[in-house]
Amino acid sequence: MKIRPMNDRVLVKRLEPKEQMRGGIIIPDTAKEKPQEGEIIAVGPGKRSEDGNKVQAMNVKAGDKVLFGKYAGTDVKIDDVDYIIMREDDILGILE
After folding, report:
1. How many Å apart are CA 78 and CA 95, to the nearest integer?
2. What is the rounded (10 degree) CA torsion for 33, 36, 37, 43?
3. Within a domain: residue 1?
4. In a domain? residue 3
5. Three-state secondary structure along 25-61?
6. What 3-state DSSP class applies to 80?
C-alpha cells in the first residue's frame, strides 16, 4: 500500500536505537522510551498560502533522517509497520 501525506505532513518511520546495556541491566521494551529519530518515507506537497494560490515547498525530502519531539505526530500502522504522520513544523532538525 502506498500513502501520500496531505499538505505539509510527512510520513516518518522511527529508527530503532542501538541496544546498550549498562552494568548488565536489561531494560524491558515496555519501559524503554520511544526513539525520537526517524527516516522520512513520504512527503506531502507543502503548505498552501493564505490565499490558497501558492504552495510553499517542503524543506525535507524522502530519505532524510530527522529528530522530532517526543509527543509529535499521530501513530499509524500500515501493512504491520508502525509509522508517524506529523507536520513539518514538528520536525526539530535534519541529521546529516
Report:
1. 25
2. 130
3. no
4. no
5. ECCCHHHCCCCCEEEEEEECCCEECCCCCCEECCCCC
6. coil
Cα distance between the two ends of the chain: 29
**41 within a domain of the structure (yes/no):** yes
Number of folded domains that form the chain: 1
Domain span at residue 50 reads: 9-15+34-94
What averages of pLDDT result for each successive group of 10 residues across the chain (96 residues)?
85 77 63 76 88 85 90 88 90 90
Look up the pTM and report it. Answer: 0.76
Q: Which CATH number goes with the domain that contains 75?
A: 2.30.33.40
Q: Radius of gyration over alpha carbons of the chain, in Å?
A: 16
Q: Residue 28: inside a domain, yes or no? A: no
Which cell numbers hold the place of 1?
A: 500500500
